[in-house]
Inverse folding.
């Protein structure tokens, strides 16, 4: 199971990296278009979709790498069972919020599909297509938070990455 979860997080970050390359390509196309007097409709919109996709798809890997910003003002002062209880409570809230975010991201994509919602920019893209990236990213984030919760519950969660940054 650990290999599968790590592969999911790694795949998600690689997909995010590809979307960042997509942002670069769209920006370069837009710049070249201005320089050489040609126009490709939708480059700005596609750059935005790619940026949003990259951001959402990178969330889970960022969490699992210990790179999310944590406010540890209270939790750093706790030890033993109190700290573990606070970690589990914090992760439970994070699971709840990530779950709600995922549900509403998928709901938004579904509603955009149902209402045939399209972009108002020159590209006219069906909005449910780029919104799927938001649903995917938030779903992988939910899985990552559930993974962290289970690891904490089993006392297998590493706190070293968080603690070393404070020194």
């Amino acid at each position: 199971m650990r290999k599968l979860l790590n592969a999911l997080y790694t795949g998600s970050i690689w997909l995010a990296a590809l979307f960042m390359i997509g942002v670069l390509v769209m920006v370069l196309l837009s710049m070249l278009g201005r320089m050489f007097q040609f126009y490709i409709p939708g480059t700005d919109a596609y750059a935005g979709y790619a940026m949003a996709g990259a951001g959402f798809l990178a969330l889970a890997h960022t969490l699992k790498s210990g790179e999310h910003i944590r406010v540890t003002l209270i939790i750093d002062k706790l030890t033993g069972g109190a700290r573990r209880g606070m970690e589990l409570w914090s992760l439970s809230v994070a699971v709840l919020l990530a779950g709600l975010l995922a549900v509403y991201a998928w709901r938004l994509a579904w509603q955009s599909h149902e209402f045939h919602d399209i972009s108002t920019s020159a590209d006219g893209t069906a909005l449910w297509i780029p919104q799927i990236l938001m649903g995917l990213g938030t779903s992988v984030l939910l899985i990552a938070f559930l993974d962290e919760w289970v690891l904490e519950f089993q006392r297998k969660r590493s706190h070293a990455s968080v603690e070393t940054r404070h020194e």
Remarks:
- The chain has one domain: 2-164.
- The first helix runs from residue 2 to 35.
- The radius of gyration is 20 Å.
- Residues 60 and 140 are 6 Å apart (CA to CA).
